[in-house]
Design goal:
This protein is α+β, with helices and mostly antiparallel strands. Helices cover 18% and strands 35% of the residues. The protein contains 4 helices and 9 strands; from the N terminus they run βββαβββββααβα. The strands form 2 sheets. Strands 1-2-3-9-8-5 form a 6-stranded antiparallel sheet. The protein has a 3-stranded antiparallel sheet with strand order 4-6-7.
């Protein structure tokens, strides 16, 4: 299982890449594997400030629709527009081209509540 060491992880299987006072958010390889083939990503929260663990969108797979939870509080400042035409990027490259949103972090202290790679590996077994 691919679990990049430089990222932080939530119990809801989202990852966070911190870049100064902003962060990039996506779902983990484990999550996309559990969901199966992603056919649609619905995120209409750009411009909104979302609380930690609140829903910022949904991802639709062939068999299910799953909520997406923000790992830390922040303002959603960008949606990965490539996912509109190619939602399968989430399956093919979850930590790269399959990222979902960029956020402006509201409370940097919340980052410390997330898992590191070893902690996330322990969570998923």
């Amino acid at each position: 299982m691919n679990i990049p060491a430089e990222l932080k992880y939530s119990k809801e299987h989202e990852w966070l890449r911190v870049e100064g006072d902003t962060a990039i958010v996506g779902i983990t390889a484990f999550a996309q594997g559990e969901l199966g083939d992603i056919i649609y990503v619905d995120i209409d929260t750009v411009g909104e400030t979302i609380a930690k663990d609140a829903i910022f969108g949904t991802v639709e797979a062939v068999k299910t629709v799953s909520d997406l939870f923000l790992p830390v509080s922040g303002e959603v400042i960008e949606f990965n527009e490539a996912l509109k035409d190619k939602p399968e990027l989430v399956n093919n490259d979850p930590y790269g081209e399959g990222w979902m949103v960029k956020i402006k972090i509201s409370n940097p202290d919340e980052i410390a509540t997330l898992f590191d790679a070893a902690g996330y590996q322990a969570l998923i077994g």
